[in-house]
Amino acid sequence: MNLSKLKPRKLAFVKEIEKLSHNHHLINRLEAIGIIPNKPIMVLRQAWFGGPLHVRVGSTTEIAIRHQEAKIILLQSIE
Q1: What is the CATH number of the domain that holds 40?
Q2: Residues 11, 46: Cα–Cα separation, whole Å
Q3: Global pTM?
Q4: The domain containing residue 45 runs over which residues?
Q5: pLDDT for residue 77
Q6: What is the DSSP string of 35-78?
């Protein structure tokens, strides 16, 4: 599952960021804000009409991320 499919208020852990050749700057930026393997992540809200996701990374960092970027963040869900 990827971050764009995670339902609001459901906790998951980052499994990995897909390594595509054209997005190494994006990967570096995501890692710099704390999106790294085994880090807890939760979607707090989804904007209407495919707008950005409001996401909490860890216990304190909150960011807004586009769906396109969220699709490359693979998750391990908690059942």
Answers
A1: 2.30.30.90
A2: 15
A3: 0.90
A4: 3-77
A5: 85
A6: --TT-EEEEEEE-GGG-PEEEEETTTEEEEE-HHHHTTEEEEE-
